[in-house]
């Protein structure tokens, strides 16, 4: 059976878990904290990061973008990455934008863990600016469409939903729902899907 090393709060791991659920692929989910001495991440990923998907033959896949592409190709159920090149690029662009918002948010969280006198407020401001610009682009791209890629539910929606949820977890003071009501409506719709409900991160 497939095995996924993940963190319950990681938006990247959540993206993989949602894809697994949507594709109806059985997988053993193993919580792992890369910074703990008991972590198995380094064994399967030389970068020591999660998520990591371990295949039946012992091959390991990382990072989340590689994993979700593998999962979408391994099963014909509910294709999440369109085959037509133009639609495929749109979906992968949404994924890159969503992951970038998460990367910037993670960077802020890590910086805030440093002693107050060591924190670089300029660095934090730059990362926060990336999040703001990313949200504005998300809102512009989505417009009034039902789905991110304009065609159907896809990996684009999964990635965007994970990013918006991660902001609620790690940056609760940012009122993105007020600024971008179309994103708020989309996030609410996605949040009702069983795959999103079942993978919701624990409260901070």
The average pLDDT value, as a whole number, equals: 96
Total count of strands:
4
Percent helix, as a range, is: 55-70%
Rg to the nearest angstrom? 17 Å
Cα(first) to Cα(last) distance is 31 Å
Write out the strand line-up for the largest beta sheet, numbering strands in chain order: 2-1-3-4
CATH topology call of the largest domain: Glutathione S-transferase Yfyf (Class Pi), Chain A, domain 2
How many domains in all? 2
CATH class of the largest domain: Mainly Alpha
Number of alpha- plus pi-helical segments: 9
Spatial shape? globular
Q: What's the CATH architecture name of the largest domain?
A: Up-down Bundle
The parts where pLDDT drops under 50 for at least 5 residues are none
Structural class: alpha+beta
What can be said about the biggest beta sheet?
4 strands, mixed
Question: How large is the share of residues in beta strands?
Answer: 5-15%
The SSE string, one letter per element, is: EHEHEEHHHHHHH
